Amino acid sequence: MPSAPSSLSIPSRSASSAAVSDAPALPTVAHARFSIGDIVRHRMLDFRGVVFDVDPVFANTEEWYQSIPEGIRPRKDQPFYHLLAENAESTYVAYVSQQNLVHDESDEPVDHPAIAGLFTGLSDGRYLLRREHRH
What we know:
This protein is α+β, with helices and mostly antiparallel strands and 135 residues long. It is 14% helix and 28% strand. The protein is built from three helices and seven strands, in the order αββαβββαββ. The protein has a five-stranded antiparallel β-sheet with strand order 4-3-2-1-5, with no helix packed on it. Strands 6-7 form a two-stranded antiparallel sheet. A hairpin with a 5-residue loop joins β1 (39-42) and β2 (48-55).
């Protein structure tokens, strides 16, 4: 049987504390204001949509982020929402920061062709997610 080492190298509390302080800071926990199925409107641009997914922080490409003019570029440390969006001309998928969204108060349904595949219908101002998409 091998003999036990005569001395062990165990980092002191101060050494481990220094290692922790050198670690990158975790993002602040942000709480999502909107849920899947909510109907929202962009604060500045003329479109609205239905939330179908939520990222707790920015999760798109850096190229996409840099394409937003710097003066209106949102912070990355907030929820971002995937929307089935519509405006007067078309329907599309949008990716929008929480700071740029408000609840839509129009009580009008969103006219997007993908809604029927994800949601069963509209109830009390929000869309109900199909059972097969819940987890």
